[in-house]
Amino acid sequence: MKKVVVVDYGMGNTDSVLRAIEECGGKPVLSNQKSDFETATHIILPGVGAYNKGMQHLKELNIIETIEEQVFNYKIPFLGICLGMQLLSDNGMEYGNTEGLGWINGTVVKFEKTSLNERIPHVGWNEVRLIRESLLFSNVENRKDFYFVHSYYFDCANDENIISLTPYCGGFVSAIQQDNIYGVQFHPEKSQKTGFQVLTNFLTL
């Protein structure tokens, strides 16, 4: 069984992520201990909250270097969810300019309305339009709905890193990839059958 380490850094409720991993056939471990990352087959960085707080907590735990070693040296599959995806960027503009992990080039910026019926934060179900093939979306139909909760989005610097777009506030990047590093802006653990398929696909990587 796959040992899926969910990063415990105090950002958001992780219970639903842990339950979803179990449902998808993985063995979830909520941890911020280096020894767990060193024996993980997969790593997930979830998160709800502010960009600057997320980076602050990761740095205080002194685990970034250990995770990077697993992801870059040993090619352990990594998935960032919501804030976890955003932290993969070079920097985020929430409450000032904060340096991110810098694993996938881009900047996290706040939504700007493009019509009167749009609300910020973006909360609820919206479609994910796949523009590039990725194993993360195997057996997932194009333009399926996923569940979102966010006020900021990942402005991706390189088009080749973009897996999908979602039509809201002029359109935004909803999934990204670089090699074994994946990020989704939506919450797969709250997106019912289709979201569980994404998590199942991640576990097969």
Description:
This protein is α/β, with parallel strands linked by helices. The chain has one domain (about 5-205): 3-Layer(aba) Sandwich (Rossmann fold). It is built from six helices and 13 strands. The protein has a nine-stranded mixed β-sheet with strand order 2-1-3-4-13-12-11-8-9. A four-stranded mixed β-sheet has the order 6-5-7-10, covered by helices on one side. The two termini are about 15 Å apart.
In short:
By secondary structure, this protein is of the alpha/beta class. The protein contains 6 helices and 13 strands.
Shape: globular
Q: Any idea of the CATH topology?
A: Rossmann fold
Strand and helix order: EHEHEHHEHEEEEEEEEEH
What is the total tally of β strands?
13
Helix content: 25-40%
What's the CATH H-level superfamily name? Class I glutamine amidotransferase (GATase) domain
Number of helices: 6
The chain-level mean pLDDT equals 97
CATH class assignment? Alpha Beta
Structural class: alpha/beta
pLDDT < 50 stretches: none
- Sheet with the most strands? 9 strands, mixed
Spatial strand arrangement across the major sheet: 2-1-3-4-13-12-11-8-9
Number of domains: 1
Which architecture does the CATH hierarchy give at level 2? 3-Layer(aba) Sandwich
| N/C terminus separation | 13 Å
Tell me the β content: 25-35%
Radius of gyration from the CA trace?
Answer: 16 Å
